[in-house]
Amino acid sequence: MIDRRLFKIPGIWPRIMMIALLTLVQAVTIVIQARALSIAVVQLWELKPLATIVTPTAVFVVSFLCRHLITVAQNRSFYPFVAETTGKMREQLMTKLFRLGPSLVEKTGTGNMVTMALEGIDKVQTYLMLIVIKIMDMGITPWVILLYIAFMQWKEAAFLLIIYPVIILFMIILGLAAKSKADRQYAGYQRLSNNFVDTLRGLGTLKQLGLSKRYAGNVYSVSEDYRKETMATLRIAMTSTFALDFFTTLSVAVVAVFLGFDLMDGKIMLLPALTILTLAPDYFLPVRNFASDYHATLNGKNALQAVLDVLETPETTDRDELKQLAWHDDSSIKFDDVSLTYEDADQPTLSHISFDVHGFQKVGIIGASGSGKSTLINLIGGFLTPDEPGHISLNGQKLPHLSQETWQHNSIYIPQAPYLFHATLRENICFYQPDTADGQVKAACEKAGLTDWIAELPQGLETMIGEGSRGVSGGQAQRIALARAFLDDSRKVLLFDEPTAHLDIETEAALKEDMLPLLDDRLVFFATHRLHWINQMDYVLVMDHGQLVEQGTPAELAGHDGPYTQLRAEMGGLHALD
Amino acid sequence: MHSIKQTFAHDTWVMPYLRKYKWLLVLVLFLGMMTFLSAAALMFNSGYLISEAARRPGNIIYIYVPVVLARAFGIARPVFRYSERLTSHNWVLRIVSDFRKKLYQAVEAKASAIKQTHQTGDILSILADDIDHIENLYLRTVFPIVIGWLLYLFIIIGVGVFSWPVALLMALILAMIVLVMPLLSVAVNGTREFKQKQIQSNFYTSLTDEVLGLTDWVISGRYNDFMKLQNKPIDEIATLRRKDHFFQWWRGFGVQFFFLLAVLTLLIWSGTFFTASKGMANWIAAFALTLFPIVEPFLEVSQGASEWPVYRQSIERVNQLSNDQPQTVAQTTLTEPVSDLNVNHVTFHYPDDDKIILKDVSLNIHRGEKIALLGPSGTGKSTLLKLLLGDQKPTVGIVTINGTPVSELQQQRAQLFGVLDQQPYLFDTSVMNNIRLGNLNATDDQVKAAVAAVELKSLIESLPDGYDTEVQESGTRFSGGERQRLSLARILLQDAPIIVLDEPTVSLDPITERQLLDTVFKVLHDKTIIWVTHHLAGIDHVDQVRFLEDGVFDMQGTPRALYRDEPRFRKLYELDTGKRS
Ligand SMILES: Nc1ncnc2c1ncn2[C@@H]1O[C@H](COP(=O)(O)OP(=O)(O)OP(=O)(O)O)[C@@H](O)[C@H]1O
Ligand SMILES: Nc1ncnc2c1ncn2[C@@H]1O[C@H](COP(=O)(O)OP(=O)(O)OP(=O)(O)O)[C@@H](O)[C@H]1O
Ligand SMILES: [Mg+2]
Ligand SMILES: [Mg+2]
């Protein structure tokens, strides 16, 4: 029920103490309230005039109001702390997301990540509010009441005391069963939201496969599975509430009957008996409240766990090893026997990669599909961490990985499938440098071959693009990403993962003219399948099945018989028209 | 009230279910009411019991009935409550599954347009919020309010049996709790909760956008901007929520206050009313205690009411989504095999855009013919394919298969077309399941054969989980070219007469590309193929090449004729082979 990490939240202890104090005072008002009401009733029962109950009634009113004012006070004093804590938690979560980058999202799923940051945190907030106050209530109020009852009538007090552990025992047994179910249910919920996002993102594909209508059944069945899991959890939770309800209500009934017999035997007077009867429900109230919020608490606890787990995911450390970096003519980057294994793979995807490039070289990366080009680019961009630290060095400094802030701030990365934000065309282009002068933006568009297209758009650069707005063609998306790169002169390292894959040859040829100057005075890693680019490269890495099988200048590679010449020869034979 | 009527005027999400399950609903309400009545009766009975016992009647028989009743009520309450909760939750969750399906169907009907009008985050937020909201509408608003009102009536009538003036007074006091405070809540808090939800749903959308584009954020290093985008909505939500909570706490106190007045009324009234004899006075304790268990449902009434505006928005939103469905054309089916596909003088521009993309384009493809479609990026190749498939309607002109317009063949399209578009999607499930989507009846061996045809057999079989490897969200487990080929395998399995390929070999290296094209054209030798490509590898496989530029076909012919006669084609060819740069 309680996550231990809860108590590690800074500043929580003083609040707990304060809540405890308020709860104690509240328990006293509950006793006074019951006593005063009973006095009034007994006076009337003895057929005394109404005037005699004025004082007890006034006391009853005051203590009743105090009791509920204290509830407000508890909430009011605790809430700011909770709000601040969860606010911070959300911030940390987002920071974590930013730090861990896409690898975290790959693992948790987009839908899930977003839900966690929004609903998850809200659930945590509810949880924190509930758990501390309710636990204090459970820990203090019943005992004050019990103590008071014991003063009047030890037998009833003993009964109430004995029944309490029985109730708690039931709660624990059922709670344990519910917990494992609830964990499963939470997983079910995650699957559900990911499944739905997944389905929506692939709706176009489903439609083309003629399955979109049938898939409704899938949505339904995933949802039904979730319902069944939820019901299973709820049933347990409800059974536990039922057991609790049953015992508490019945206990009140039993107490009433006990009291009745005692009264008949003259062992007790009406006043104490009535007081005990009035107090009996309040004795059980805290534990009942706790149980009725059990589900909310369980959800909150799971959410808290999920959030804390993400927060505790080890970050790539040492991201600031590299103090300063300005890429110069004489800078160098060296891979010395670098290997990389994906988390769930049993074989390294990249093995024993060694190369040494320096200054403003243009490095082409070629190789068959699946040979590891994108992986290598991702490694260079710092989105992946090599298996062992210390095999990469920059300007002679050994680094654990390239997820160095300074390095990343020096690089521009165009992925194989660039993402367009739901924003204006300008914002998309100026993504790396939001406040760029108009002229520069236009120049970048010109170089990326977008000008004609933009001129046709009624709103020009201010057109909204991306998901949920105007469609753009595959090649246009890629050119927008290229324009981003054209815009930024300060970043001297370019990582291109097939930037022209979606372009036709003519557009590519035209674009190439503009791109070539961009590549000057920069360190470029350029993964491509279009071999004509190789003529413009200074250095070529040939990948095959995760290994760097050949490297050198294009002339060197062409000069001797190796994988590169084979590749070219095979390709030469591919075209059969001439 | 007016707003409630409006909301439900064209509702297909709430009312039908209420009607469909009305007896179950009655049962839930009955059980809910009985729960609290038993609780009240228990206290009532116990108060009487001990007062009577305190008179020390000579014989136990005098208190026998209350003793038995005490036990009975003590058992009845939890039993009622348990059954109420089980029934209501089960019912609501079942409805929710229907909702999800319905929401999906509403979205599906608009599939081709949905990407332009809704963002993923939008729909995600509909899923997460609206559905939950409708669920809560029942559990937190409808049930508690109705139960609260029933109890209210019961109390008034119960007191009214003894004294009408007191009943009237009670009616007024308790009306504060079950009528005035809920209305006040809707007025004061409702707008706040509504606003909060609105901000939240926008936030959903923008956050999803941020997460999907995370790579770019990370490399941009714009940490502060990244955080700033969220701070504003978060702060706004926090402020609203703080006010919301404060209001709720004080409202809770208010309910207790009026409740106190009701208790006092009963106490004083019974103190003056039951004074005729000692026996009568036994009822005083009963009346004084009986109300206490009822405060709980009363507290829920106001809360339920104040959530109404939020639910209303959800109901309206889902209704809107399912009501404005695109117009559908009457569908027919083709029974004879496809003989020709005809694009007849088609002119096209996107509805929200006046740039003419295709100008009076005509194209006739016979059965078994293979056509390559080339052209600069952004001229409208993919658009032409959308027209062929019937995803878009020509502005002028018509597209037909065997003379029947494609718009009338939409139900049959999966039997007619196998399509690989520019962004094929892999679902977050195993390789086997993903490929089998092409043909749900395919055997494992057929799936494996398709995988072998796209040159992935050795890779997949070398993985620890083989064909059961999970591809992860949108296929990230595989490289760009591998994803492309997995999607292609799906099409090979589909076995439709017309195959539409939009750049199937993008992100493939030339050798794999060549091998793949050879296989594709071999496997699909008897099909009609329309193939969009950006370069000329494998072009010798087709019967016809068409160049689309500025909305018209400006070069066409067989590949060999073009190579022979068109210098531009030759130049492209050389660029492509890397002989020229
Ligand atoms: N997240 C992952 N987990 C495990 N294996 C992966 C993961 N991502 C990629 N791989 C595997 O690593 C290998 C190299 O992938 P990579 O994306 O680097 O290829 P590539 O050379 O860029 O290919 P392409 O030209 O098709 O884009 C592939 O076989 C792929 O299946
Ligand atoms: N939904 C849309 N609304 C308005 N314009 C659109 C929409 N989708 C695409 N366009 C525009 O229509 C033109 C043709 O797009 P299309 O996707 O057909 O090009 P394409 O020839 O396939 O290009 P590529 O080779 O780059 O994929 C482009 O200018 C594009 O911006
Ligand atoms: Mg790749
Ligand atoms: Mg296209």
Automatic annotation (TrEMBL), chain A:
It is a multi-pass membrane protein. The keyword ATP-binding applies. SMART domains: AAA (SM00382). Its main location: membrane. Pfam families: ABC_membrane, ABC_tran. GO terms for cellular component: plasma membrane. InterPro entries: AAA+_ATPase, ABC1_TM_dom, ABC1_TM_sf, ABC_transporter-like_ATP-bd, ABC_transporter-like_CS, ABC_transptr_CydD, P-loop_NTPase, Type_1_exporter. GO terms for molecular function: ABC-type transporter activity; ATP binding; ATP hydrolysis activity; ATPase-coupled lipid transmembrane transporter activity. Residues 19-299 form the ABC transmembrane type-1 domain. Residues 333-570 form the ABC transporter domain. The chain crosses the membrane at residues 50-70, 127-151, 157-178, 236-261, 267-285. It is found in: Cell membrane. Keywords: ATP-binding, Membrane, Nucleotide-binding, Transmembrane, Transmembrane helix. GO terms for biological process: cysteine transport. PANTHER family: ATP-BINDING CASSETTE SUB-FAMILY B (PTHR24221), GLUTATHIONE_L-CYSTEINE TRANSPORT SYSTEM ATP-BINDING_PERMEASE PROTEIN CYDC (PTHR24221:SF614). This is Cytochrome bd biosynthesis ABC transporter ATP-binding and permease components cydD. The gene is cydD.
Automatic annotation (TrEMBL), chain B:
It is a multi-pass membrane protein. GO terms for molecular function: ABC-type oligopeptide transporter activity; ATP binding; ATP hydrolysis activity. The gene is cydC. Keywords: ATP-binding, Membrane, Nucleotide-binding, Transmembrane, Transmembrane helix. The keyword Transmembrane helix applies. Its main location: membrane. Residues 341-575 form the ABC transporter domain. The keyword Transmembrane applies. The chain crosses the membrane at residues 21-41, 61-80, 142-162, 168-188, 249-269. PANTHER family: ATP-BINDING CASSETTE SUB-FAMILY B MEMBER 10, MITOCHONDRIAL, ATP-DEPENDENT PERMEASE MDL1, MITOCHONDRIAL. It is found in: Cell membrane. Pfam families: ABC_membrane, ABC_tran. This is Cytochrome bd biosynthesis ABC transporter ATP-binding and permease components cydC. Residues 26-308 form the ABC transmembrane type-1 domain. InterPro entries: AAA+_ATPase, ABC1_TM_dom, ABC1_TM_sf, ABC_CydC/D, ABC_transporter-like_ATP-bd, ABC_transporter-like_CS, P-loop_NTPase, Type_1_exporter. GO terms for cellular component: plasma membrane. GO terms for biological process: cell redox homeostasis; glutathione transmembrane transport.
